[in-house]
Amino acid sequence: MRSSSYAVGGGKRALSIRSTRGIGKSQTDGLDRIAPATVYWRKAFIVEYMHDFHVDAKTAKLYLKDVDPLWRAFWFHMNLMAKNLKEFGEGLGTISDEVFAYHCGGEKNDLARWVREVIGDAELAQALDSVKNQADAAALVNERVSMLAQAARA
Length: 154
Fold this sequence. Notes:
Layout: E1 4-8, E2 15-19, E3 26-27, E4 39-40, H1 43-51, H2 57-64, E5 74-77, E6 80-82, H3 85-94, H4 97-104, H5 110-119, H6 122-128, H7 134-153
Antiparallel strand pairs: 1-2, 3-4, 5-6
């Protein structure tokens, strides 16, 4: 097993990557905005990347509130919809692989698009663009919800 550590950028948006797993595939996916470098990462790296984006309490509350009007909610399938990020993360944990593939098949990614366009959380949306399965997507959203809830209490 390989252990690696990388540091990219500086200041508030510094990206620190540590892993005891093997190195994943090379991607930049917008991280080049932070520093002109190719970054190696996996799901754990993206979560750490999001930790470096500090959100004020007002913005955190905005990201966590229910969508209005209700037609802007995310519909996973006929019986499951999410009105906010918390319900979205819970819903991602319960959907089947087929439903996930429907929303994230080919070039489209309905999950990232909804988070970007309806919720307004560009950092989470960017991270969701790279997720390849529903378990990783659910973990990512739930981690972001807990980070936002903590920021909203501050």
